[in-house]
Write a structure and sequence with these properties.
Integral_membrane_YjbE, mainly alpha, membrane, 245 residues, transmembrane helix
Length: 245
């Protein structure tokens, strides 16, 4: 219960919710497409069971991601992927991206479609949420992940249209989300075990979080990551707009 009084816990919860809102729009679209041919009486069941299965699958994937991030160089790879995901948020999307999602008039076939599609599309969510949980430190990473996902479910499933309209009206929300991913990427990469020999760590601090041992480096890497995503994202967005024009 001590974790509920930790500022780092609530900061990470807020990050997880924002990540799921920004990166979960695709999942809401997949759910709608997969269940659109179900009878009205079964559509709600398809949405609920498909979402539940996708969330359970995501928790399992994040558990393995948190375990793997303890290995050298994997945080560097994960951080690089987060940079790419953040930049992708700032570049116009392909409208035909979900054309391959098949609808079904059978309940469990639609549920299976939702779960399989969510598994394929969950890499960005899994890495970003694992990075946010890592940033919280401590031994409560999985409770933090589960809590953040549970809070996000109703926002994604029932509030997706409202969220999409909000992001269309206030593009700064997307920009802030992309910069958040850059912040998480920067701080994640700094804490990779492979970089420990190159950092000015005091003796006996190897097991402590970088944010506790080198707070200035931690914040500097986060700011640098956020600014890098913003700069590169705007550059690629301008290039894409030029090619379309």
């Amino acid at each position: 219960m001590d974790m509920l009084f930790s500022p780092e816990f609530w900061l990470a919860v807020g990050q997880i919710i924002m990540i799921d809102i920004l990166l979960g729009g695709d999942n809401a679209v997949v759910i709608a497409l997969a269940c659109r041919k179900l009878p009205d009486a079964q559509r709600t069941k398809g949405i609920i069971w498909g979402t539940a299965g996708a969330i359970v699958l995501r928790v399992v994937l994040i558990f393995f991601a948190l375990t793997l991030l303890k290995l050298p160089y994997l945080k560097l790879i994960g951080g690089a992927l987060l940079f790419w995901i953040g930049m992708k948020l700032l570049v116009p999307e392909d409208e035909d991206e979900h054309a391959s999602v098949q609808a079904s008039d059978k309940l469990w076939a639609a549920v299976k479609t939702v779960i399989v599609a969510d598994f394929v599309m969950s890499l960005d969510n899994v890495i970003a949420i694992a990075g946010a949980a890592e940033g919280a430190g401590g031994d409560h990473k999985m409770p933090l992940v589960i809590f953040g996902l549970l809070v996000s479910i109703p926002i994604i499933v029932w509030g997706s249209q409202m969220v999409i309209k909000l992001m269309d009206r206030f593009p700064v929300v997307i920009t802030a989300g992309a910069m958040l991913l850059g912040w998480i990427a920067g701080t994640m990469m700094l804490s990779d075990p492979a970089l420990s020999p190159w950092l000015p760590l005091p003796p006996g601090s190897e097991r402590k979080a970088i944010s506790d041992v080198l707070p200035l480096w931690h914040y500097a890497s986060g700011v640098l990551g956020a600014l890098l995503v913003l700069a590169l994202g705007k550059l690629f967005a301008a290039r894409a707009a030029g090619e379309q024009g």
